[in-house]
Amino acid sequence: MTRVYNFSAGPAMLPEEVLRQAQAEMLDWHGSGMSVMEMSHRGKEFMSIAEKAEADLRELMAIPTNYKVLFLQGGASAQFAMIPMNLIGRTGEADYFRTGSWSKKAISEAKHFGGVKVTVDSEHDGRFTSVPAADGFAVSSDAAYVHYTPNETIEGVEFPYVPATGAVPLIADMSSTILSRPVDVSKFGLIYAGAQKNIGPAGLTIVIVREDLIGEPLDGTPTMFKYATHADNGSMYNTPPTYGWYLAGLVFEWLKSIGGLAGMAAVNERKASALYRAIDASGFYNNPVDPVCRSWMNVPFTLANPELDGDFLKGAGEAGLKTLKGHRSVGGMRASIYNAMPEQGVETLIQFMAEFERTRG
Ligand SMILES: *Cc1c(COP(=O)(O)O)cnc(C)c1O
Q1: Closest ligand 1 atom, CA of 202?
Q2: What is the distance between the alpha carbons of residues 93 and 99, in angstroms, rounded to a whole number?
Q3: Of the four listed, 33, 79, 228, 233, which is most buried by Cβ atoms within 10 Å?
């Protein structure tokens, strides 16, 4: 068996240790005689898996006790609607930062439910390559919340700071950056993330929400779209994504074993800076993002001669470096180097890039 280095933006690589443990436990979880997939979500075995996963996530992120952790479905995309359904009612308006493709989607969905003020728009010449300075935006006094996307997965733009929004709750789509480094959860009203980048398999969505924000959904909000429904029932109002929840728990254990988020951040910082250094040192590869907000997780780059894109991808694939094709809206390449991408994978990519430039550039 040969495992490749998979640079997909999501679903993405999982730690090999996690996959091996899941394999070992597949047919008989801890002497239960069942796979986790076959267990009742209300039985004591699964309850212990669920509670351990939540406790480990709380420990990893130092989540304060006045926050609920919800294990939901529907992806980050369902949150684009659930957030305004549950939170915009207080004033009827919310502020949104428009910094790339995912925040654009969040904005267009929120418009169905209330007033949206775009207080930051970093698009220039049709591209997103920067974020405002930490003091470069104002918070509307009548905003029910401020929504932003700390890491724009498609453009490879990551905020180097947490925006200060005063008393107005800050909401973050952390889908492609959660668990990549420590964050101060108390600065946020709500954090959400689809699992398939840094948490586990697709199909699970994690929401971390401050308790006082849970209660007042818009009239007519369906039961399944109310945070209160899930908060009041331990995310078991209906059948939760049990296997994804279990695998997320294994990923949390893995993160703890490598030094938690501080340990993970050190590795991520090394991986990203090595790759950006290689791109910047070459005359052949280019990353267009302002260096102060280059993403640790998603590194888009172009070749000086786009006619060589196909040959680059073919050669990379033969070297075991897969899924490097850039998003169609940006072109070129994109290396997504989430938590589970080994340092060796990034080193192998850098070596391949140097060799390709030497022989073809
Ligand atoms: C991947 C991604 C999404 C979409 O997630 P789904 O789980 O597919 O709905 C939303 N926001 C960001 C920042 C993402 O990276």
Answers
A1: 7
A2: 19
A3: 79
* Average pLDDT, integer, range 25-39: 98
In degrees and rounded to multiples of 5, residue 302 shows phi and psi of -115, 160
Which of the four CATH numbers 3.40.640.10, 3.40.225.10, 1.10.10.10, 2.40.50.180 does domain 16-257 have?
Answer: 3.40.640.10
314 is an active site residue:
no
| Phi, psi (degrees; rounded to nearest 5) at 84 | -65, -40
Residue 329 has pLDDT above 90, yes or no: no
CA 63 / ligand 1 centre spacing (Å) = 22
Q: What confidence tens digit (pLDDT) does each residue in 202-212 have?
A: 999 999 999 99
Our answer to whether residue 197 is catalytic in this structure is yes
Cα-based distances in Å from 192 to 19, 248, 312: 24, 14, 35
- Counting from 1 in the atom list of ligand 1, the atom nearest the Cα of 77 is 9
pLDDT of residue 98: 98
Q: Is residue 151 a contact partner of residue 174, using CB atoms and an 8 Å limit? A: yes
Cα–ligand 1 centroid distance for 75 (angstroms): 7
Q: Which long-range contacts (CB under 8 A, 24 or more apart) does 116-124 make?
A: 117/93, 117/143, 119/95, 119/146, 120/148, 122/97, 122/98, 122/157, 123/98
The domain 259-360 having CATH identifier 3.90.1150.10: the answer here is yes
The answer to whether the pTM exceeds 0.85 is yes
Atom 4 of ligand 1: nearest residue by CA position: 76
DSSP 138: -
Instruction: Assign 2 a pLDDT band (cuts: 50, 70, 90).
Output: confident
Strands (E) across 132-189 are located at: 146-148, 151-152, 157-158, 170-173
pLDDT digits (tens, 9 = 90+) for 63-120: 999 999 999 999 999 999 999 999 999 999 999 999 999 999 999 999 999 999 999 9
- Residues flanking ligand 1, CB < 6 Å: 10, 75-77, 102, 149, 153, 173, 175-176, 194
Name the residue ranges covered by the structural domains of the chain. Answer: 16-257, 259-360
Same fold, 16-257 and 259-360: no
